[in-house]
Give the backbone structure.
Amino acid sequence: MLKVKRVYDKKEVSDGKRILVDRLWPRGLRAEDAAVDEWLKELSPSDELRRWFNHDPEKWEEFRRRYRKELSSPEKQEILERIAKGAAHSDITLVYGARETEYNNARVLEEIINQAMKHRLAKTTR
């Protein structure tokens, strides 16, 4: 199962593996308090895209399009597929530092990984 939550939210047993998907370490948070199992900076948006977007809901659709394009490299697709495989068998939580809970890169990653999980499931049930 795949979940998304702020890294500042208290870790719960149901979180399973916690993966930080931001380029920058969350402000004011010590590593032990973050309870992050893996930090995948390479899945975060480029600095240019992140700064342009700035969590502006009016830029959301364009951000999603540009970010998906950035994630299209074989290396990043391999990482996303690994997460999808893991989430199909155990709990994984993508954690992020932004205050904005709807318009952030973790939500785009959630969409992509859920699509990959559905695709994998469809292939196994054929």
